[in-house]
Amino acid sequence: MRFKAMFLGRFLLGLIAIAALGGVVMGLWNAVIPGLLTGAQAIDYPHALGLLLLCRILFGGFRGYGGWRGGWHGHRFGRRGRCGPDWHAMTPEERERFRRGRHPDGSPDHRADARTGAPE
Predict the structure, then answer these.
(1) Does the residue 70 lie in any domain?
(2) For residue 30, what are the domain limits?
(3) What pLDDT sits at residue 10?
């Protein structure tokens, strides 16, 4: 019985949150977009909910997850900025090769292997 009450409470809270977010999206759109873009019109509540759903699909969830789970930023931010191989598991030769193949800003330099003749 307690589980049903808690489930119903969370469901109602979710509906209220979605309704409130739809109102916020509608208000922000109607306050900002028609003044910025010529030809843009004010939207009503159902269109605001549709826009909210579209943003949810494209950019990710309401639970703190980003969109495109498993993509580049899932590793970058989920692993505290570690994008490359595990540094401590590398031999000194692998570390030096890894350093040579990077730009000073830390991004991969795909031309480095072509210059040195090393296989990719």
Answers:
(1) no
(2) 2-62
(3) 93
